[in-house]
Amino acid sequence: MSQGFDYIIVGAGTAGCLLANRLSADPHKRVLLIEAGGKDDYHWIHIPVGYLHCIGNPRTDWCFKTEAEAGLNDRSLRYPRGKVLGGCSSINGMIYMRGQSRDYDHWADITGDDTWRWERVLKAFRKHESHWRLDKPDTAPAGFAALHGPLPGRKGEWRVEQQRLRWPILDAFAAAANQAGIPATGDFNAGTNEGVGYFEVNQRKGWRWNTAKAFLRPTTYGRPNFELWTGAQVQKLRLLHDDTGLRCAGVEVLTPHGLERPWLNAGGEVILSAGAIGSPHLLQLSGIGPAALLQKVGIPMVLDLPGVGGNLQDHLQIRTVYKVQGARTLNTRAASLLGKALIGLEYAVRRSGPMSMAPSQLGAFTRSSPDKTWPDLQYHVQPLSLDAFGEPLHRFNAITASVCNLNPTSRGWVAATSPDATVAPAIKPNYLSTAEDRHVAAQSLRVTRNILAQPALAPFKPEEYKPGPQYQTEEDLARMAGEIGTTIFHPVGTCRMGRREDPGAVVDSRLRVLGVRGLRVADASVMPTITSGNTNSPTLMIAEKLAGWLVG
């Protein structure tokens, strides 16, 4: 390279696209965005139901797998991560969710930095959001503007819309949840999440709205100070020792044209936005991580930073299935060629119907037991069922009520297995490895059974298919939770924020890698604890916070 860059962003996913937009807005700063995957020009990325064709597809997914999990009865799980412009926002469930206010207040306590408190992060969320209710001020409930911005709507890039279909069986589930003591809600993002209602989604007029559309097109692409490299995998960071210590001087990138070494201008920064798997893996490949791991793998150690790759947290969804009668579900609606044709026609004409579906339509937040101060369970309810993701739908009508523990105490890790950047790291979430998580899992199945037993669902004669009514004891329920549980694709925490004296911290509260100048991490890996809900929009907020610090 004949010239350097002021910012090199590794990973054009959820966080990287926003950062590229914000940082390149200054015409005096040269910005390079590097993506190992390809462009988001695959048609199934943009059709909401296309996640079925993107997850497990090496064109759009890294196709990782976990190590065998004892808590899941020695099963290994597929572990999807986006490998395309937009990252996981191009293949995820599109659910718009901020989390709970307590999540961010806890981050502030951990880091000692009040800029992470709920009332402060709200400003970062609001800066890029464009909410459907803000288009129609008369539909906004009291207090909505204080949480989501001034009325009428702003022109934020991150579009939030209502889903474009409803299912009577899901309406009945919502009514049953009300009867079980879960209130109705029209806003999951007011700070507590508690209630039941249809999820809002990151879509625009029936199309998926990923971060590449939101933040790269059209403005960022046209800037002369911005470069985007796709199909370019960063091999490692270029780290140098000078009189002031260790600093990051650039990166080494394998592109279709060979090995490139873009370097930083004086005072420039590399920002890792490769996600909760990619960012710690790249640090380890560069010699930053636990000394024992680096020695074992044969990577020369540059900086012993024990927390890199540790603290992995994820939401394990326990997929309960109930057969129903007298209700229309996708299982039978999509069973015939005619049914599939009608579904396709509805989407082509109206951009609605099952092809516009997020993977989960109805949501609920509640408590696993009355002594819980905050909701600690989240439901993703679907008008369909199947044995495992990617397999055919069942031939009988059924619904799936997936429930997850929002605040798991189990902790796992990500570890390099080779100095070769093309070799996938080992991923070990350690699901259900604590007594507390096993107890909450058993309790969540009891909560689900209570909802399904309410009068509102009685006309549909729900019959428990998975895990099965024969399992009643705490031990049986915890074991079956491990049998039917799977990832909901929310890995976080592997480069966690913390105070400088915290031995497990990787970055400080301003996302600077401890012990290395010119290097930051901005993605879900920096979360010290997982947010209480879907993690995509909180990751955008993290990027927005960093952009504010860098550009003012």
What would you say this structure looks like, in words?
Its cofactor is FAD. Belongs to the GMC oxidoreductase family. It comes from Pelomonas baiyunensis. Keywords: FAD, Flavoprotein. InterPro entries: FAD/NAD-bd_sf (IPR036188), GMC_OxRdtase (IPR012132), GMC_OxRdtase_N (IPR000172), GMC_OxRtase_C (IPR007867). This protein has 552 residues and is α/β, with parallel strands linked by helices. It folds into two domains: 318 residues, FAD/NAD(P)-binding domain, CATH 3.50.50; 185 residues, Cholesterol Oxidase, domain 2 (2-Layer Sandwich). The chain is 27% helix and 21% strand. It contains 16 helices and 26 strands. The strands form eight sheets. Strands 7, 18, 19, 20, 21, 24 and 25 form a seven-stranded antiparallel sheet that branches. Strands 11-2-1-15-26 form a five-stranded parallel sheet, with helices on one face. Strands 5-6-8 form a three-stranded mixed sheet. Helix 1 runs parallel beside helix 16, helix 5 packs across helix 16 and helix 14 packs across helix 15. The radius of gyration is 23 Å and the shape is globular. The two termini are 29 Å apart. The model has no long low-confidence stretch (mean pLDDT 95).
